Amino acid sequence: MGVRPRGDRQVKDNEAEMREAIAATRTTLTTLPGLDTVLAAKVLGHIGDLAVGATLRMAWQADRRALLAVAVSEIGQGIAAAASLLAINAVMHAR
Questions:
Q1: Residue 49: which region, alpha, beta or left (left: phi > 0; alpha: psi -120 to 50)?
Q2: What DSSP state is assigned to residue 31?
Q3: CA end-to-end span of the chain, whole Å?
Q4: Average pLDDT over residues 67-88
Q5: Pairwise CA distance, residues 72 & 85, whole Å
Q6: Domain ranges of the chain
Q7: What is the pLDDT of residue 85?
Q8: Secondary-structure percent of the chain, ordered helix, strand, coil, rounded to 5
Q9: Strand, coil or helix: what is 91?
Q10: Do the Cβ atoms of 47 and 25 come closer than 8 Å?
C-alpha cells in the first residue's frame, strides 16, 4: 500500500509550517549541508532559539522571583520525569 494522497497533503502542510517556523527564528541551520527542513525543526525543537540568554536576562531584570520559581518548577518536572522513566525501565527489564 502506498501513501494516501491525504497523507501526502498533510506531510506537505506540516513541512510548510516547519519552514515558516524556521524562517521566523532567522536561523541559518538549513544552510548547512545535510540539514533539511525536518532536521532543522528537530534541532530547534530540542535546543530552542539561541536568544534564550537574552530572554533570561530580561526575565531576571523584570522579576527575579518569578524566574527562579519557573526554573525550580522546570527542574523539578525534569527530575520527576527522569525518575519515572527510570522506574518504567526497571520494571520492563525486571526478570
A1: beta
A2: G
A3: 39
A4: 93
A5: 20
A6: 1-50, 51-95
A7: 93
A8: 80, 0, 20
A9: helix
A10: no
